Automatic annotation (TrEMBL), chain A:
It holds the Pfam family Peptidase_C13. One of its GO terms (cellular component) is GPI-anchor transamidase complex. Keywords: GPI-anchor biosynthesis, Membrane, Signal, Transmembrane, Transmembrane helix. Belongs to the peptidase C13 family. The chain crosses the membrane at residues 12-30. One of its GO terms (biological process) is GPI anchor biosynthetic process. GO terms for molecular function: GPI-anchor transamidase activity. PANTHER family: GPI-ANCHOR TRANSAMIDASE (PTHR48067). This is GPI-anchor transamidase. The active site is at H169, C211. The keyword Transmembrane helix applies.
TrEMBL record, chain B:
Gene3D superfamilies: Zn peptidases (3.40.630.10). InterPro entries: Gaa1. It holds the Pfam family Gaa1. GO terms for biological process: attachment of GPI anchor to protein. This is Glycosylphosphatidylinositol anchor attachment 1 protein. Residues 425-469 have a biased composition (Basic and acidic residues). Keywords: Membrane, Transmembrane, Transmembrane helix. Residues 425-488 are annotated as: Disordered. The keyword Transmembrane applies.
Amino acid sequence: MVDTGENSIMKYTFIFNSCILIVFSTYVHVGNANHDEQVNEFFKSGHTNNWAVLVDASRFWFNYRHHANVLSLYRSVKRLGIPDSQIILMVADDMACNPRNPRPATVFNNQNQHINVYGDDVEVDYRGYEVTVENFIRVLTGRLPESTPRSKRLLSDERSNILVYMTGHGGDGFLKFQDAEEVSNVELADAFEQMWQKQRYHELFFMIDTCQAESMFQKFYSPNILAVASSRVGEDSLSHHVDPALGVYVIDRYTYYALEFLENVKPGSKKTMAQFFKVCPKHLCISTVSTRTDLFPRDVSHTLLTDFFGSVRNVELLTETSPLSKINTSSPTKVETCSKDTCKVMNKKLEKFSYPDQIPKILI
Amino acid sequence: MGLLTNEHSRNRLVKLLLAHDNKLCCVSYIAGVVWFLALAYQPFNAGTYFSENALLPGLVESELPPMFVSALQIKDEIHSEMEKDKKKTPHAWIYKNFREIGLETYQQNFSLIYPFRSVTTQIVTGENVFSILRARRAASTEALVLSIPLRPLINVNKERPATHGGIALALALAKEFKRKPYWSKDIIFLFSDFDEIGTLAWLDAYHKTESEYIKANDLPARSGPIQAAVNLELPAQDVSYYNLLLEGLNGQLPNLDLVNLVVRLCRRERSQVAIHHSLEKRRHQYSDSHGESWDDFKLSLSTMMRMMWYQASGAPSGNHGMFHKYHIEALTVQGVVKKKGSHNDIITSARIVEGVFRSLNNLLERFHQSFFFYLLPATNRYVSIGMYMPAFGLMILASLIKGITLWIVCGDLKEKRALEAKKLKEEKEKSKDDKGDEKTDKKSESEDKEKAEVEEVLTKVKEHVKEESKDDEFDDDDEGDPNNPANQGLISITPIILVSLLLAWMAHQGPELMMRIMPKFRIHTEDMVIYSMLAIFTAAVMYPKLMIRKSSNPNLMIDWRLLKSIALIGQTLALACVALLNISQAFFLAAFMVPVTCSVWPTKSRVMRWVQLIALVMVSMLFLMFVVGLISAWPQTSTWDLIMKGYANTKHLIFLGLMDAYLFNAWSEMIGSAIIFPLWLLFWAVPWADPSF
């Protein structure tokens, strides 16, 4: 009878151990699934780098506010993480050293003159008479002469989110560049399409603060573009306030309220683009802020502000290990040669294009 | 298209024109005058606005110390300085003080050569003082001018008020401006002697041009091209309101943006500002509506008329007129002192001038956005050239319609007369042929008789000669006959046109020629000018009498319709040309001349002829000048006083007009004597013509 007792104890222990093992294994399995999800979430937004193209299309002392607009936005974007090497700043830069400036070497965006937005670390890429329509389109499309330095190039790739901000004097269907030329909405739409076809952006956020600004984004037809404008067609965007010590209007309404919003955004903020679109209601801005979301695949209320305004360098610390698949590096790549008759056939075989995968195969 | 090229409809249009031409003329002229005057009514004109975006007027706050003590101190100093010698102007004081501030200060001498000089005339010399404040951070590429005329205290009167408050203001402002880093243009403080003459001398030297009678020395230093200038005439006492003077030489006006700028800045300091002393009620200055009552219209109309009055003379109303010669926008700000209600002190004036200069500092280009041709019925309303030209066009359309109508009638009559002449000629030839047959018969008979009856032949020849002389008598009658081709067409009126041109040349050159003999008569220059003009005028009105030929007909045998037509079309063209440059002058000339010149016509009745001649004299240039003199002398105690003062004013005005023409190249004298006068002389011949044409 003792033998059966020992047998039963062993049986019970075995069952108990197997139960625990089963429970443990399922737990581990579930844990692994979470881990994969975490890894997947890491690449959810789809972009890996952020660029900004900030353009002030006007010059002269009485356009001080456009200057202040673009420099304030430059400050915000830099604060949220985009480095100077990834910001293209196009501005006439004739305010700080203008003989009419009562506070030389400064540009203020507020009457209280607390922040000098033209501090000592502003890097202007295109200044003075270099801010032309030709240079702007070339920067966007990447068709610059060989001699252009890297700081003046938009070296974005298919995983870049780009913020394009424009301010100046605009009209129905055009934006005036420095008193002598204008860029039309059709031209801009075509430039963005060129960018899409050359895979120069992943998602693009277009922000414009001029009179009749809506007309500038009406002709866009490329995918993944989100746009916001400070006024409708037929409306004027108004300036916010005068600085009586300087004698000029120092900032525009829409940019003023947008900056107010951005001041409260920190690098890890979870604020969404939908909240950003509501930033200037009609009673504050007087003009109607309009947006274009039909070309944008994601839901704006789930799109983070920092997807465009900041360069969030995500670091996630995982305590588990992730298995990496082995890359087959042994087989040499076959160099195929062709003669005059067979080249066409071979090229045809190689012509199949496809977009790269969301998650690079190397990590799975 | 069809209306003018289709023969049929063109004839219909012409017939319509001929049938109703008098009515059309009347309606057009009256409508034109009424429309022009109605433009002063507020709903018919527009409110002023700023066209130049760069100006940013009045946005920046004043940086002058609130109690501008230095200005007040300097004001007292300069007053005492000027009191020391009432005949002189304080050049040395100004020079010394500006140097002490640290500004580049220079003196410029100039001399005025009197145009009508004789042995005893001296050459008058004057001295300008000017000071340049260099912009610290700009390259002296542009300049602004603050000009202050220097007037010795004995010359001060209502027309030319004292200016030493302005001198103090300029010095105080110069001290303040020097400390500021925000000037993008140089500021030149100019103190000129002898009003316009000194300013012109300085400008000539600045731009390296030369005048015939004003010799200016070279400037020791200069700055860039001048973008705008403000001429300041401020007395030392507190000012009741600021009076703006805009008219420059030959009716030029400064850009409306500059005027609006000064008005806006005066309003910012809550000061009253007026155009030619035409003060608006307080509430109107700050609101654009409520201007539709009859009283408001009267005030607007009087302001507009005052501005047109000053513009019509073609003489500048202040030193700023000289700047207009070089296309520099300038105006004059006068401070007017009234016994009660003066509370704008020198500090307010300083803030206004500082605000104007801060706004002008923002400019990048010369004034070009706003209007150059306008009339101001109020400081905040304007009538642009697009509004007043159609009204003026209607006025001179009357003259054009009449001219065209007369041309057409002339053409018709010519055809009629040609037909008649042909008929007459045919009849004459028929009768001559008959007579010729008789003669040949008689001659053959005598030839057959082989001189048998030589006496018979002789008597026949005598008869023939008598008959020939009868033909001659018939030819004598031709001179008084309208059908004589010598009395028709252009041939008949060419002598009149040539004579009138000759007389016009005499009127233009006459005063100068007369001046050469003036010293011998020892008459005052003004008297000499007017006597010479009257002499030429009297000679000119005699010319129709001298041109009547000694024949049975006591009237001028000319094609008066052709003459009047040419004169009317010439008048239309002349007035249109003048209107493009100086609308006020053209308006007043057209308003008086057009009704009279359109309605002169030759009559048999002596009464009507004399009425027409008197009417013509009343619209002649000399009489119009006399009317101007009378209006300037208004009001006087008695009629005789009025006439005397009016005559004195007329003399003075004509003399000044002549001097302006010599010194500054003003055109009014030339327009009056060389363009309007010959046209008037053409009309003068019409009442003397034979009405049977």
